[in-house]
Amino acid sequence: MNFENRIEFARQLDKEDPLKKYRDQFYIPILNGKECIYFTGNSLGLQPKSAQDYVLDEMENWANYGVEGHFHGKNPWANFHDVFSKKLQPILGALPEEIVVMNTLTLNLHLLLTTFYRPDKKRFKIICENRAFTSDLYAIDSQLKLHDFSTEDALIEIKPREGEYTLRTEDIVSTIKENAAELALVLLGGINYFTGQLFDMKAITAVAHEAGAKCGFDLAHAVGNVALQLHDWDVDFACWCSYKYLNSGPGAIAGAYIHVRYATDKTLPRLAGWWGSDKHERFQFKDEFNAIPTAEGWQLSNANILSLAAHKAALDIFEEAGFEKIVDKGKKLSAFLIFILNDINNSSSKKVLEILTPQNENEHGCQVSILLPEKGKDFFNSLNKNSVIADWREPNVIRITPVPLYNTFEEVFRFGKIVKEFAE
Ligand SMILES: *Cc1c(COP(=O)(O)O)cnc(C)c1O
Asked: Does the pTM of the predicted model rise above 0.90?
């Protein structure tokens, strides 16, 4: 599509936007007395207005029924989470039995590593990306130590080439091949949180499998953002959080995916809890753990219903809007943003900013990471004065993320205007 850096053009795109009515279904924060331009949906998605009602319903059920709320009310808590696998199916590209909503992201990562990282003296290495999110690094590192391996010997971080910001698929592939004999696991972010780079999960999974290793992804920045086909890509396991692109509230209940060939295997070693044991026998309190033969067999505890209620409110909007349309608009928003940023560079005497995120549409989601060679922090502070909420990552990177359900093309245009005025 041919974009134009003009407000009338941006307004026309908004007018033609099939998802335009959804912005009104979210609370837009006020900054300096006016509605902000919220470009941080990659960090904490905005609140759907419906979420309060969904949560209040469960507070009322609790008030009215006490413990009987497990079996009474509109949505009995005993089965409350049964709907989530279906709702997340189109977002993940997975079978319902491969999906479970539970816990938080880092905890789920540990649960999955416990099952899928089973090293021996010969195969013990883990490959991850350089600049993985700290929590993921700590999780990997502590799992290595639990198995008496040192980070030095067992962790391989793939780095960008000299002078580059992002990873080349060919370098990921060659690192996997070079380490094939000792490789136990490849664990990458679906999208890197810092650069916004979307990895070729299908290709990486295939090469990891050829090398005889397992392959998993942390989808914190990918879920609800880009189209996924976890099952068809043959990904072994994945986990995500729901408070970023999925708009389900701070610290919201998270999720995990386990390929059906493992999810149905009741004998796979895992950390177990009563909620992962056969649902029909839960209240018979049998001594023997009898794993649910789906991803639900990895659950530990009965779920936080208030968090599930907010998650349901958010996912109902995804369902109604249609995930394909959401992905389409997300691509268009980020493409428009990249176009405007390039236009600013091209029309200035010197380069105003650098775009770190790969510009090819198959290599990024909504997030575009930029850095200003000069006065980056001043620029970031000026955003705040202009009622823009974006996000600063040390040492000098600004992450800009327009998202399809509540951001507009006009906001992207106005952001560009602020950058241009700052540069002049
Ligand atoms: C946001 C994020 C986290 C946060 O972990 P929590 O367990 O939800 O606190 C972890 N890893 C990545 C890659 C993230 O983007």
From this structure: yes
